[in-house]
Design a protein that fits this description.
mainly alpha
Length: 308
Amino acid sequence: MTRFAGFLARRLLGAALVLWAVLTLLFFLVRAVPGDPFATEKSGNPAAREILRQSYGLDRPLPEQYARFLSNVARLDFGPSLKYKSWTVGEILRQGFPVSAFLGFLALALAVGTGVTAGALAAWRRNTWIDHLTMGTVVAGICVPGFVLAPLLIIVASLQARLLPPAGGGSPAQMILPVLVLALPNIAYISRLTRAGVLEALQKDYIRTAKAKGLADRRILFEHALRNGIMPVLTFLAPATAYVVTGSFVVETIFNVPGMGKYFVSSFLHSDYPLALGAIAVYSGLLVTLNLLADLAQYLLDPRVKLE
């Protein structure tokens, strides 16, 4: 218990430092982007724009704005949006984030389920047509980016075959294409990692012992080899979630999904600093938390981590 407490304390401290560094860097990078959020005001009056800057605190020195930003992040209060005047950043995040999170959850669940199964079967049937087909699909999934795959699926599945709607996110049918686009690259990576891990596990003595006992092939594969060969997949889940989160911005824009993507893009186009920093802060906190959970899962499941 003492060793685990020390491990957890080190990881929590490291996660806090990483989150602070990311937020600090992004705060100054966002403020360095050229543009005036009030340059398109109808009045066109410099005095009116200056009043607006004062009301939003943008006339204060940058260090003071930075200190206020960190204080607001600690309270999860990012203030009003500069673009959507009647909305606060918190209200926008509460409206768009659940849609993006649900889309990412479906894509990640599909990727893990399909990738683990395909990788395990490819390892079990090594150098057969199943293995070659899986690895060929892996190469295609890694090489084709989402912004290329998405229009292709719209043309084939929507415009030509008329099987699925080309855009929107209000119905289950409208979610199928965005989920596929987000899941396919992760299916490729997860199946490759699973195949490598299971191949290594199949060479262990306990697998030969299980075969000598006459256990069924399915039980040997999924209860013994896969259980010990899936560790690389657990480590990959954090960056996989990062891909799903960042990739959803492009996918949501292409498929017109009412998630965080359109607000995130709009925040940079209109120099909406609070909205941009609020979205980045939420996603940065999510990714740091997921990395922490991946480290804890690896610690609890892999005895070698405990010995280190």
